[in-house]
Design goal:
Radius of gyration: 28 Å
CATH topology: Four Helix Bundle (Hemerythrin (Met), subunit A)
Catalytic activity: [protein]-C-terminal S-[(2E,6E)-farnesyl]-L-cysteine + S-adenosyl-L-methionine = [protein]-C-terminal S-[(2E,6E)-farnesyl]-L-cysteine methyl ester + S-adenosyl-L-homocysteine
CATH architecture: Up-down Bundle
Number of helices: 10
InterPro entries: ICMT_MeTrfase, PPMT_MeTrfase
Strand content: under 5%
Cofactor: Zn(2+)
Distance between the termini: 115 Å
Largest sheet: none
Number of strands: 0
Shape: elongated
Transmembrane segments: 41-62, 74-94, 106-123, 166-191
Structural class: mainly alpha
Protein name: Protein-S-isoprenylcysteine O-methyltransferase
Length: 251
Amino acid sequence: MRHHIHIAVRQSSPPSDAAQSSGTRLGLQIVAPSMAARRQAWLFAAALVFFHASEYILAATFHGRRNVTATYNLALLISKQYILAMSFAMLEHLTEILLFPKVKEYWFISIIGLLMVVIGEIIRKLAVVTAGRSFTHVIRIYHDDQHQLITHGIYRFMRHPGYSGFLIWAVGTQVMLCNPVSTIAFSLVLWRFFSKRIPYEEFFLRQFFGSEYQEYAQKVHSGLPFIRHACPMLFSIDMSKQSTKEYEMKR
């Protein structure tokens, strides 16, 4: 007797259009960023280009192109720390696109960030234009005849609108990117930086303009939260100690 063994070969049916479409969407979501994320990146790049280009143009206008070229990096606020911070921001943006793409879909947060960028730019550029030749990117430690105390325009409302505008602009770029980590980091680091820079700068401003600046500082806020003004007497003591140490080191 012959036994016939029937082997049934089951052919797998081709994937449905719905499954293919779902897989395609999943693949695109992993590989390519969403339209919102791409728009955020382009706006971020545009904000950087406009900020630094306008800083250079204004600096060259008021101080001369030859003088600005010598301190090009300082004039455009480009430093190692700045490059590192912006690189970290872009890295966070890319990482969250891959791991948490939904974070980049909050369009209303991006709009708030864009408004902060615009407002920060306006405040800072008003500060530069109002101060003119008196506005410098490097703190002046020696007084000259062209250096004047500016108390009109936007300086009627805040003593350091340039710093205030930059803080709003920088934090705004991270809000616009929907970068939660960089938003917090930028806020804390910049506030700490300006909380040390402002007393240092105002020490020399008090030396240059005396009671005139002291009265101005008492009436007008610094423009940054929780930074009113430093005690001139205490800071003078600190500066005297620092100057003594520097003198001894030079000897």
